[in-house]
Design brief:
By secondary structure, this protein is mainly alpha-helical. Helix content is 66%, strand content 0%.
Length: 158
């Protein structure tokens, strides 16, 4: 996509395109979503943060459990909607109560992904493709990466 076309896109669409581009560069699904988000949002974080999410690729260490793109979307949304200072509340009860208002934001994101794909599991998302290392499965994952990155950006704007 050329630069002029990118100018007309929403932040969510730019985030989706950036994440899909990172997939073509060899980053894993979780890294792609986080990097795409960081490309289009001022997170104040360096790319060193990727060390925290690398293991989520391939459904967590390629065990094909929860999709890494979903994990990347949750982590990305955390930049905007996560607790900024969980230690501010001194009592455990207060900390727990604070989470009651935050968890639904993340649940909405995850539920929208599940509604769209019917599952959150890498094994089920990649099941139609016999060869996990094959081109068709990778194309499918690139689409999922873009969708999850764009959705994280959309939910961050709410």
């Amino acid at each position: 996509m050329d630069e002029r076309s990118m100018e007309n896109l929403s932040i969510a669409e730019k985030t989706e395109q950036a994440a899909r581009g990172h997939f073509r560069e060899g980053f894993n699904c979780a890294e792609c979503v986080l990097l795409g988000y960081m490309d289009t949002h001022d997170t104040g974080m360096s790319s060193d943060i990727l060390t925290l999410i690398t293991g989520f690729g391939g459904g967590i260490g390629r065990t094909r459990n929860i999709c890494g793109a979903i994990s990347g979307a949750v982590m990305s949304l955390g930049f905007e909607k996560g607790r900024k200072n969980p230690c501010q509340e001194l009592e455990p009860k207060e900390r727990a109560a604070e989470l009651g208002a935050i968890y639904p934001i993340f649940a909405d994101l995850v539920n929208e992904i599940k509604d769209h794909y019917g599952t959150l599991l890498c094994s089920e998302l990649s099941a139609p493709f016999e060869d996990f290392d094959g081109r068709e499965r990778k194309k499918n994952c690139q689409e999922i990466v873009g969708f999850c990155a764009g959705l994280a950006a959309k939910h961050a704007e709410k």
